[in-house]
Write a structure and sequence with these properties.
295 residues, alpha/beta, four-stranded antiparallel sheet, 36% helix
């Protein structure tokens, strides 16, 4: 009404009413910023420590040639995280840039943790994925990814266990290169939940791989290199080439089909031929059917 009577636009009408009727305006107490992409911190690797702890730890996990393994995976030990020595995993993205750090206690009780705050969560192991790989595994722990890769399978690991999937939004473009993704999270309830989430989020190129122990590092530790490699290959093939639950053999429907026709009344079952010898076999003509006879 003010706009029409005063020949003003909406902004002008609001200013006119404010002055005319003494309306008080209250400025916002906090400036509202437009939403944007979250900024992540640059990781600051803790100081390296050289001792036998890391070698002994990896050997106890079933790994061989640990010196070469440490160099290739660019892992190391530190004493700056807590009261003991920690294994440091460096997460390089698909472009070989260090963006995430995680520590794992080796000689004291504790849980794995992110080394710095507000780091970009990504999958672990990109720097060890072959350039032309078109198939990849996703596992739950860094040592599982290392074990699987040592056995000859390209593997990536979740950055924060089975419950945190914030990494997906950052990794989807890089996972697009793979034709198939084998999900081999831990063989427990939490691992199953994570697998269900990944199967839904990453699409029909994914499939769940089952192994006889909790995780791949346990598999290596219990069965050694050669046997573990065989088990993984068999588990992979069984999962990838498994028929969908909805697919059934036609022979399974035989009894249902027989029961359907046996229980139909005469009208629905069709017309007899009128030839006694043929009708002995209960051969009938149904409506809408095209029947060919040879002899």
């Amino acid at each position: 009404l003010i706009c029409e009577s005063q020949s003003l636009d909406l902004k002008g009408a609001m200013e006119w009413a404010t002055q005319q009727y003494g309306i008080r305006t209250q400025a916002p107490t906090q400036k509202i910023k437009a939403a944007g992409k979250k900024k992540f911190n640059t990781p600051k690797p803790p100081k390296r420590v050289n001792s036998e702890t890391l070698h002994e730890f990896l050997q106890g996990r079933g790994f061989k040639e640990v010196g070469e393994l440490i160099a290739r995976w660019q892992i190391y030990e530190t004493s700056e995280i807590s009261r003991g020595k920690d294994l440091i995993f460096q997460f390089f993205d698909a472009n070989e840039k260090l963006v995430y750090l995680k520590s794992k206690p080796m000689d004291y009780d504790g849980n794995p943790t992110t080394v710095n705050k507000d780091l970009k969560p990504i999958l672990y192991g990109w720097h060890m994925i072959p350039e032309h790989a078109r198939d990849v595994w996703i596992v739950e722990g860094e040592l599982d990814a290392i074990a699987g890769r040592q056995l000859g399978f390209p593997m990536l690991s979740l950055p924060s266990g089975s419950n945190n999937m914030k990494w997906i939004e950052h990794e989807m473009p890089y996972l697009a290169r793979f034709e198939s993704i084998a999900i081999c999270t831990d063989m427990d309830e939490a691992g199953d939940r994570a697998a269900d989430t990944l199967l839904k989020r990453l699409g029909d190129r994914c499939f769940r791989v089952q192994i006889p122990v909790k995780d791949i590092n346990d598999l290596l530790k219990e069965h050694g290199y050669e046997k573990s490699k065989q088990i993984l290959a068999q588990s992979y093939d069984s999962a990838k080439y498994q028929d969908p639950e909805q697919l059934r053999n036609v022979i399974e429907f035989r009894d249902d089909v027989d029961e359907y026709f046996d229980n139909q009344d005469a009208e629905k079952r069709g017309l007899k031929t009128g030839f006694a010898k043929i009708d002995e076999h209960d051969f009938r003509f149904g409506k809408g059917e095209l029947i060919g006879c040879t002899g």
